[in-house]
Amino acid sequence: MSTVAASTQFQSAEAPRTFKAAIVMGVFALVVFVAFGVFGKPDNVTFQWSKPDDVIHIPDFIVGSSLVGLAIGAILILIAAIVAVNASRRRRNPQWISLIFGFFAIIALLAWLAAGNAVPFAFILGNAIVLAVPIALGAMGGIMSERVGVVNIAIEGQLLTGAFLAAVVGSLTDSLLLGLVAAMVGAALLSMVLAAFAIKYLVDQIIVGVVLNVLVLGVTNFLYSQWLANDGERSNFPGTFDITPIPFLSDIPIIGPALFENRLTTYLAFIIIPVLWFFLFKTKLGLRARAVGEHPLAADTVGINVARTRFWWVTLGGVVAGLGGAALTIGSVGAFGRGMSGGQGFIALAVVILGRWHPFYAAAAALLFGFSIILRVWANQVSPGIPTDFITMVPYLVTLIAVVGFVGRVRAPAADGQPYIKG
User: Fold this and answer.
1) What's the pLDDT at 56?
2) Does residue 70 lie within any of the structural domains?
3) Distance between CA atoms of 107 and 253, rounded to whole angstroms?
4) Which of 72, 88, 116 lies at the terminal end of a domain, its last residue?
5) 314 lies in the same domain as 225
6) Residue 9 belongs to a domain
7) Are strands 61-64 and 244-245 parallel, antiparallel or unpaired?
8) 358 contacts 95 by C-beta, under 8 angstroms
9) How many Å apart are CA 63 and CA 47, to the nearest integer?
């Protein structure tokens, strides 16, 4: 009897025999091979790895655009075949195989768009990272909340609060650091409201999050039209943090300017993401937080204060999201605009799910959306005949393909969104 049970358990642990990811990859690979390769543009494309005045200069690589489509299309077909073989043998595909597939697909898209022009890798990567920072930090705040069982729909409001306070306080005090602190404190206070209603008064967490988003949007729009629009030079002109290159590291080709030549808000994001991963998965504090999000009754039984743990993790998540809001103003634009978060909080919520509530995976997903924003701007310059709406649609289409074909069914923390009533 025990042998049969063990055999059943082993079979259930095997990967299901599903060819969904292989089919999606195969179709996408054929599209690349045919559209970008067979019927691609014959013009040459120049891949620029570094600028001529860089300390370490890598020569440009010139190749035919259609040849890139053919070569990468063949590579993608091979990857799809490997995925199909693994599915037929009930082997789980490693997480990195979809990342490699996406990387090559992006290279093919860039080569097709830039036929007859150049692809400045450092420029595209650097701007994609900067534009991804608010989304990534909002996602980190969402992960911190949902890992302890509180659904955080209010990320949009937290980003908007951080952006508004960073601009206003930074302008009035003439101190960007004070503006940064005010952004984090303001978003933390908003998170405390969410935590109090969700944990203490057991109000539906989604409803509270939606109400907070609407409230913050209305308040900031009112203050902008009645105050900032009439006194913008004194109250809404904080400027931005200086770009600070890190010596030696910023001289590395491609990744040097993208990673090590940034503003303070971007550097803080680079620190927060691995630190959050370490605390969640390598410390007792993170183990307790995950226990509260998975099985609060069991956590309470061993002496963990469920309400207190949830409250402080949600609050700290607001601190991180507020930093993401500050990255929109004093870390990028230099002033606050009406509704300037532009739905990035909801994108961050999708990134949390796409990243499986894991800081590194969520950061990679946020980078995809940052890439989509800069791609729209850059593609309009090198290929003005292509509709910008089509270019904007491509990364989101890739995201849907990734969710359906590669990510599959995701499992949120078991107690996510469920109030806990102490017996």
Assistant:
1) 73
2) yes
3) 18
4) 116
5) yes
6) no
7) unpaired
8) no
9) 8
- Going by C-alpha positions, the residue among 187, 169, 188 that lies closest to residue 179 is 169
The CA distance from 363 to 136, in Å, is: 5
Q: Of 337, 357, 391, which Cα lies nearest the Cα of 145? A: 357
Q: Which residue has the tokens 């037929």?
A: 88
Confidence band, pLDDT 50/70/90 cuts, at residue 7: very low
Q: Could you tell me if 109 and 223 lie in one domain?
A: no
* Strand ranges for 65-217 from DSSP E: 118-120
Round to whole Å and give the CA distance between 16 and 235: 58
| Co-location of 43 and 147 in the same domain | no
Of 185-199, 297-311, 329-343, 399-413, least confident by mean pLDDT is 399-413
Quick: pLDDT tens for 291-326: 999 999 999 999 999 999 999 999 999 999 999 999
Q: What is the pLDDT of residues 354-364, one digit of tens each?
A: 888 999 989 98
45 pairs with which residues across the strands?
63
* Long-range pairs of 234-237 with CB within 8 A, sequence gap ≥ 24: 234/171, 234/172, 235/168, 235/171, 235/172, 236/167, 236/168, 236/171, 236/335, 236/336, 237/171, 237/334, 237/335
Structure token pair of residue 311: 């409250």
The CA distance from 77 to 359, in Å, is 30
Q: Do strands 244-245 and 44-48 pair parallel, antiparallel, or not at all (unpaired)? A: unpaired
Same domain, 75 and 207: no
Both 128 and 103 in a single domain?
A: no
How far is Cα 103 from Cα 81, in angstroms, rounded to an integer?
A: 17
Kindly report the pTM of this predicted structure.
0.88
User: Structure tokens of 306?
Assistant: 């469920």
Domain count, the chain: 2
> Do residue 110 and residue 133 come from a single domain?
no
Residue 406 is assigned to a structural domain of this protein: no
Evaluate whether residue 2 is within a structural domain: no
Q: Does one domain contain both 84 and 153?
A: no
DSSP 8-state assignment for residue 154: T
Taking the chain, what is the end-to-end CA distance rounded to the nearest angstrom?
38
Structure tokens at 213: 């988003």
Residues 107 and 201 in one domain: no
Strand 61-64 and strand 44-48: the pairing is: antiparallel
CB-side neighbour CA atoms (13 Å) of 348? 37
Domain CATH code at residue 178: 1.10.3470
**Distance (Å) of CA 344 to CA 157, 236, 324, 389, 412:** 10, 21, 10, 18, 21
Which of 64, 95, 116 terminates a domain? The answer is 116
The residue range of the domain holding 99 is 16-116
User: What phi and psi, each to the nearest 5 degrees, are found at residue 42?
Assistant: -75, -10
